[in-house]
Amino acid sequence: xxxMVLEFEKPILELEQKIEEMRKYADNLDIADEISTLEKKxxxxxxxxxxxxxxxxxxxxxxHPDRPYTLDYIRLMTEDFVELHGDRLFADDRAIVAGFAxxxxxxxLIMGQQKGRxxxxxxxxxxxxxxxxxxxxxxxxMKMAVKFKRPIITLLDTPGAYPGIGAEERGQAEAIARxxxxxxxxxxxxxxxxxxEGASGGALGIGVGDRVLMFExxxxxxxxxxxxxxxxxxxxxxxxxxxxxxxxxAADLLEQGIIDRIVPEPRGGAxxxxxxxxxxxxxxxxxELKALAKMKPDKLVEKRVEKFSKMGxxxx
Amino acid sequence: MPWFRRSKENITSEGxxxxxxxxxxxxxxxxxxxxxxxxxxxxxFTCQKCGYHFRIGSKEYFEILLDEKTFKEIDxxxxxxxxxxxxxxKKYSDRLKESMRKxxxxxxxRTGTAKINGMPIVIACMDFSFIGxxxxxxxxxxxARAIDLALKKKDPLIIISSSGGARMMEAAYSLMQxxxxxxxxxxxxxxxxxxxxxxxxxxxxxxTASYAMLGDVHxxxxxxxxxxxxxxxxxxxxxxxxxxxxxxxxxxxxxxFVDVVLHRKELKETISKILKLLHD
Lengths: 316, 280
Ligand SMILES: [Zn+2]
Description:
The complex is a heterodimer of chains A (316) and B (280). With 316 residues, chain A is of the alpha/beta class.
């Protein structure tokens, strides 16, 4: 499946390939011991590489072009998905996919930013960068979820809100602000999952919820490391340092009290096994939804506001 | 008597005078003319020739807007820490110290209670001179507490924004202030208490994408730059020049995102009029 290999993945993949080749001859040759030795070695190698990933390496994993995207999770986790389009005001934003589906034995509204896997699909999806109509589509459907008393699941995966002329003309800032305002008091459970890139207000615009989950190799921050580098270092060359400084990994954010739970990824990252990533997430989502279903709507909203009110660090 | 009510006779306004020491004259960024500081003060820090609005801080806004001696500042003890020990070309902790020293302020926003033409209000005003008016944890928390106070007192809220956006040096903490302040404003709105958002030059990024764009009434000073993405980023993305007047207050009004575009001298009376109509 892997079409693109990151630099630090290479030794692992090379070894895996070697094992694969040896297996072809395993019937004729007595090399079972050798294979099992190599398998142990690749496990150790993977362990040592993946337990020492730098923050920048995790950013690269979060952006891996083979990583599961919103539509993959919807396909692998839900049934009877019906995609709904448009904000009823201006247009349909293809950078965000949204619709109702069955998750386990319940109906949910599920939505998320959608990236493309090649140039053509990336252009179609605008690289997962939403315009105001995308945020307004999201809000229209969230209000529908309230009407039909269905929980909401949002999947965050965007390099940011689209910085274009039309986006500004149609009120990108207002659209995001409105969603933050409205999502804070929608009387249905909202579970947010950062599945890949969570860049700034563009991600947060569908990211206010009762529970915020984050995949192990996703990143979430106020700005992408490259842009941070260009502003603070006045050069594009300090992205690694910027990633370190921003403390943007799932482990960092859990410590900062900004996310509630880390979703573990399959060995080698989510892109190595879409099915397993989706089944892990599904199991966790069902657990979270079950717990949230017990709360009364008023309490849910009260707790949600309280949760975000606490965020930050200061002294006095 | 505050400086802006000084009688006109005291001020010489006919061109540069030799006997006025250096530093009393400043160049207008709008028309390039030299303007005398006293004249500028008297004219609400706007150019009399071209109407250009000079950037001012909370001190000046409070003097322009609020009834004399009614401002009571709150949350003066809260301070930014450096929760991520953030270092770029400088340490964030040093940046904070330096900014405090240079600006004479503790943070990029000041909050408190006051009166406008006799009506009690809660007010927050940002200072661009403090790390570009950026919103970190303290700005978010002070805004949130100001909203809480408006809720408790059932008094209208006014926020004057001037900001380059969320503060990068507090990373995700800064981002979450967008959600925090917006959630608080939802509570204020549900309680039926008016909130007037005043946007001044510049209001961009995370501040625009949260409280600045969530007012019952949006007022913008003429010519103010208001947007989500900065013009430089947009230009870079689309690879061509931006149309004239793009992201200016007048443009936002034309596109339907600002109710009132005004000259700074009309700010107090306009706010007062709106509040009297909406709140008793
Ligand atoms: Zn001028």
